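Section handout 9: paired folding examples.
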Amino acid sequence: MGRLINELFGGFHGRVGNLVGYTLKGKHVIRMIGKSNKPLTAARKANCEKMKVVNEILKPSIQAIRTGFRLAVVGTDKNEYNEAVSYNKKNALQGTYPNISLNYTKVLMSMGSLPVALNPSISQNGREITFNWEISASPASEYHTDRAMLVIYFPDIKETCCSLIGSKRVEGKDVLVISHEHVNERMEAYISFMKDDGKRVSDSVHAGSLNKNHQISTGIVLKEGAKISDKTPSKNNSSQNHKKQQPLSKRSKTKNAIHRKLFAQLNRQTTNIYTAPS
């Protein structure tokens, strides 16, 4: 249902039929929702795949994107997320459809004109992820007070941890504390700098990777002493097992359906941003 803004001729917010109204940069925008019955061409399939791959890293990093691309869209009708998608779709992908993937070293979490971090690196000590970078030899550098923005992306679970206002550039070091659940996860780290007044920002730089050989858990837990057999069950055993299985009642089916729905909702809610304390 749409909602009128400033009476009849002031635009509306929401959906009315096949029209959607919203406000962008103070302007009322109305768009039509269209459906295409044409089969997807190879080019459109490739474009859909590119969007999917880029969104996997940008969606959980939305806080960092809003901060890092805020100045890049000043004075335009674009928003920060769309600008980040546009850049990374053009510059941070590799491979051809259907084998398109991210080149993590080319991903940008921020875009600006400040000097980038020099020779950044990362190391891990339990929950503490330490970022290091070189500092200017000039004691009067105008960039010494720039504040670090740190981002860690966990590719296997599609989550992000970030610190938007970190150490000063002159300190050459900052620490981002992650949760216990993320300690052994594969990580891709990024660092950029922003002025104290927020009026300038640097391009982000890939600071390194951790736990690249991390194995994704299958979720199968065996009791102590149990063994996995590669033998297929015999027909007799299969028939016996089949006889033991009782058909589910209508109530049980409904209960299982509710459990599956709740589990799916929980899975969709696991993409969180863990903002580290400044």
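Moving on to protein 2 of 2.
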Amino acid sequence: MPIQLCFCSELYLFSDAQSQNGWIVQYPLQSICIMTGNSVDIPCWYQNPSKQKVYRTFWYRYKDWMPGDKDPKDLAYDPEYRDRVEYLGDKNHSCAFRIKQLKREDSDEYRFRFITYWDERYTVAPGVTLSVTGKLQLEGNSVILICRSNATASENNYKWYKKNGIHAHETKSSKTLIIKDIKPEHSGHYFCGIWSITSTEVYINVQYAPKNISVIAFPSVNLKERDSVTLTCGAKANPEVERYTWFKKNGEKIIELGTGNNYTITNITSKDSGPYYCSGENRHGTINSTYLSVNVQYAPREFSVSVSPSGGIMMGDSVTLTCSGDANPPAKSYQWFKDEILISPGVSGQNYTINNIKFEHNGRYKCNATNDIGSHFSPAVFIFVESMFTSF
């Protein structure tokens, strides 16, 4: 069922600059529709006669001004508002103000008031009408905007416009504008018109859960030990993502690492290699990113030489020595040594095979493994060749 969030103002034949006895107040937005819990900035500019000096200015709620009161209650001193209202104006004729943590009860017409040094008082009406709704303009819902006027006009005389920056384009000719299945691109300022008369604007702010979430790494996902890396999580959301959480997958386990838009690892080690992901959350939902794998590279380490066959070695046997260990990227070249002397350059693979082994092959063998990061020597193993003859 469509959600009726707010209505455009009735159409009148006046501009947004109101005046009284030479006192001019300009309200760029005379009608604002916004959701509870948000903050709203209400823009305003004023001009006073040159011979009259302003002593004090303030905002008040129209319905709070009781007959017989000299002045209405200043919002800045109203217990219901004083912790939520901030006057943004300055001495250059700005009278803007902000209301935070909006509640439904804040819906009202707000007016700006002058007090001069001669104790004269002026209020320029009408003011700004604020409509605070508890209904969310959520992606996928529907919105109804109704254009009201005291003019006699046919349905086709009503025009709806949406502003893109300072430009406006016509969207529909009708008294009622229905937007079904609203999307983020429907956000914006809308107003209606009849002939040359236009209404004030209504802002539609389409909210949605985080989407298009991704993780990037700086400077790279390919790192060396003792480097540093920063992972950054980003997502589109309205309202903005309230909480980012970081996770790392270790085998079948998921480990929560922390919160924040960025996650930094300093003095990185091989244990930090693996897939990472983040989640983004706002009041409307949570989304997880895909995995980003961090690859920590390091020189060969913990290499050793294994001998096959592993039992006694008889003269004439074939023996294979294998150099193996841990390296990232894998070792791409090997050197073999016997009794600290490099075996002929042609022997460079991970395996070294000695066919028809003889006594002169007795000795201590070790390997040196190398990758793009560095190299590493294994401990030596001793090869002892036994005679085929046994004495009685």
